[in-house]
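User: Can you fold this complex?
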Amino acid sequence: MNKRDFMAPAISLALLIAAWEIAVRCFAIPPQILPAPSLILQTLVTDARLLFGSLLVTLRITFAALLIAIVVGTALAVLFAASRFAERALFPLAVIFQVTPIIAIAPLLLIYLEPATAVLACAALVAFFPILSNTALGLASSDRQLRDLFALYGAGWWNTLLHLRLPAALPYFLGGLRIAGGLALIGAIVGEIAAGSGGAGSGLAWRIMEAGHRVNIPRMYAALILIAFAGLAIFALLSWLQHRALRSWHTSAMAAE
Amino acid sequence: MKARRAKAAAAKKASTAQSAPLAELRNIGKTFESGVTALRDVSFPIRRGEFLSLLGASGCGKTSLLRIIAGLLEPDTGSVHWQSGRRPRETGFVFQEPALMPWADISTNVRLPLRLLGIDGQTAELRVRESLASVGLEKFSSAYPHELSGGMKMRASLARALIVKPKLLLMDEPFAALDEISRFKLNDELLALWQQLDCTVVFVTHSVFEAAYLSTRTLVMSQRPGTIAEEISFLPATGRFDPQYRTSASFAARARKLSEALERAQ
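Assistant: Here's the predicted assembly.
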């Protein structure tokens, strides 16, 4: 990306914030209704310990969930590659979990599990599907002629998996991971909200609800902005990872000639 | 030098002609799940040291036949009888596309068969270098496939097939996607390698000119179901490496003979 790519979004964002600040001041909108950006920034600073502590809690859940999603998603994809029967038997279940909104499943999870575990389960549950479906697609997409070559020289299933199918699935997996990162954060937030004050949590979503009860609107905004930035950062990190891993060989990561 | 090579090759062919064939295909038949009968009652020997072309239009089952010879596809009827009891371990396969692993550099790609056969270390290192040199890619060992032209990728694919020091080289329209200049060049290099290596080649093609130029024996195939319609043998042309050969009357006569046979087979 060059400087120009950053210019357009930076300008539009700056204009939006400026307009917001001016509007709040001109129309003297009270902070309980719409706090000015400057006030939100000030809240971020004064409540820094509280808010960044909560951010850390949410991020920890998000990354733990992502890790679980990677392990479970990849393992299931390999299982599907090994057995058509396993794929037919289990894939519909995965789809059912995917299409049922997590907010509807969360209350049940909270009954069966400790609140902290339930939040983690929510996040992992929404994050694992893109990893599973993408990796499964990738494992099935290795070059047929290369598969013939592996068979010609007597390579077994494991060897073919390790040296052909897994590397061929890597771009698909990384594409799924980038989606899963954002979903894990959404899942963590949803889980926290569902757990509510009953939860032992002190994540960002919990902060938003708490601040809402106290009508501390600036803090709600401050927490919201932190969540948005966390989501952006996760996306950027995983995009960078994808580019890093594929830049030497995959079309998606190579510069146009 | 070239004349001597051609003569030596001719002598080699003469001495091997009488020995038992490398393999015998007997009554091979294959029908796919879609109901298409790809092959019916195909029988022929593969003779040691020959350059055998399977010539036919697209969809006549040439590729299926090659995969059956390689043991990658099970025929529904008939079987392949290897003189030694099984297909030689040293079999090279060159596909229609280069089929290189995009994530690995050229030397890793070329080394793949050795790795799968459990040969590594110094021996493998040396053979990668030899094999790359034999196709003129020694400078590109650490390049990635996407950095090479179509012709160079095909060379890498050929180097990968040669690294096992093949006794049998199976080729599935390997140069069909190349431009004519690259194709002619690779045809010549393939012939030179075949003569050096003392291997048997089974070469699938739909090009009358390629079959006429390369092969010592051509099996002309009919379509749907694929069967062997005619067999045409040529002695290796002595003037084959002469740049004028491709426009000579003797080459034209060979091409016409194959072309007419292909016409009859349709």
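Strands of chain B lie at 23-31, 37-46, 51-55, 77-82, 91-94, 168-172, 200-205, 217-222, 227-233. The CA atoms of residues 34 and 64 of chain B lie 14 Å apart.
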